[in-house]
Amino acid sequence: MNNRRLYYPCIFIIILAEASLLVPLITSFAPSIRIQLSSRLQSHHRTNVLIDANDGSTKHSFTSDELFIGKEESSVAQLLPNGLTTTISNHTNEATIKTTSTELPRHIAFICDGNSRWSTRQSLPKSMGHAAGADRVINVIKALQRYQSSSSYSDDLDQTKTIATSDDTDHTITKATTTKTTLHFHGMIEYCTLYAFSTENWTRSPTEINTIFKLMERLAIQYRSDESVQSGKVQIELLGNLEDERIPPGAKKELQQLQRESKVACEKRRDELGNSANVLTICLAINYGARADILQAAQKLAQSIASGEISPDAVMDESEISKRLCTAHIPDPDLIIRTSGETRLSNFLLWDAAYAELYFTDLLWPDFDGKALEEALVWYGKRKRRFGGRNE
Fold first, then answer.
1. Which of 111, 224, 274, 316 has the fewest CB atoms below 10 angstroms from its CB?
2. Could you read off the pLDDT of 306-350 as tens digits, one per residue?
């Protein structure tokens, strides 16, 4: 009988020891460890909650089925070590913060590849792939505007690693460390060039070519009414030979109208806001080929020499070619992204890309979303650009 009287107090003491001694002992030795308790009282319905201790060093994350359903904040001191005042939050992504600084490219360029393969994988006609690609152009422009600011932009990347699991019939204890990386993007993206139609694309079927230019025409009409264009936040520039008679007149007319209207709106914005008028210049490379552009620049240079504008004995450098290219008014690209898994430039900005960073992704262009763009920018930020010299 005496032994039985001692039995229950001993059990009670053991429970208190686990609650008030074991947990603080674990967290004191490993303050970055998150302790997650998963109650099995109602396995059919669970509510995840994160409990932040006010000591500023330890975070306790619980999963409880009965106590916290429908409650965003409550006192749960009975579940934590003695002396800690806590609040409950339904956010489970909080963790240790790590800050990384990333420099943004001033000029980013895209080889928008993979529309046809995307439609094939979706069992759709090619026209639907090009339509999805056109929609992606608009979405990428909107995503780029997030980075179109002189102030830094930050985002969060969460990575969780489970270290150990203890399991019994009543509860599960999982110890995990989570690194929350805050990315600070410095600088601003001012220019973006999109490879919309190359000089080599004329070898495609007339039906596909007609579809592409119909989409360009429709896109130009719709985008003219977009708030970014109307307010002068986005300026459209056309690169390539638009005097080619093979280009449908309707597409040419609407594209040039979009270029004119966006330019007027941007000039008005610059007049009103001065240097604070951040403008994103979108260059659409249509009927463009880098070799053809270099050739026409060389011909113009030869004409200048023949006319006496430039002396044949004059000392010339590469700038004499650069300033005669159709890209003369924009800076060289810092980052060129090609989608679809291909790893070549395909006659795109060959002269201008001399020191560009080249990023290749297996994603098809219609699937290249804001997250993929962020990953490419983070990759770019890790590059060491020396331009032939040394950073010593």
1. 274
2. 999 998 888 889 999 999 999 999 999 999 999 999 999 999 999
- The DSSP 8-state label assigned to residue 42 in this structure reads T
DSSP letters for 179-223: EEEEEEEES---EEEEEEEEGGGGGS-HHHHHHHHHHHHHHHHHH
How many angstroms separate the CA atoms of 34 and 65, rounded?
19
- CB 196, CB 258: distance < 8 Å: no
Asked whether 333 and 107 are in contact (CB, 8 A), the reply is yes
Contact between residue 320 and residue 294 where contact means Cβ atoms under 8 Å apart? no
Annotated active-site residue 55? The verdict is: no
Mean pLDDT of 261-289: 95
| Global confidence as pTM | 0.70
Query: Reading across the β-sheet that carries 107-111, which strands appear in turn?
Result: 234-239, 280-288, 191-198, 107-111, 335-338, 357-360
Which residues have C-beta within 8 Å of that of residue 349, sequence separation ≥ 6? Answer: 109, 193, 290, 327, 333, 336, 356
Backbone angles phi, psi at 350, to 5 degrees: -65, -45
User: Is residue 362 annotated as part of the catalytic site, yes or no?
Assistant: no
Catalytic residue among 48, 139, 201, 241: 201
